[in-house]
Design goal:
Layout: E1 8-9, H1 18-26, H2 30-43, H3 48-57, E2 60-61
Helix pairs in contact: 1-2
Amino acid sequence: MEPKRLCRASVDKKICGVCGGIAHYFDVDSNLIRLITAALVLAGGLSIWLYIIAAIILPETDAF
């Protein structure tokens, strides 16, 4: 069995696929991850820069 890798989603993506990739990695609904991310960004707990950095650093995959 191949170990899990955190990658951006190319199938389940709205902007860059970061939330879709995180959702696939943790086996949860991607809309839930998107809601949590939006709430954290609006509350000031998560910087939008962190999302941009993840979009640049994480490799893209089309495996899921």
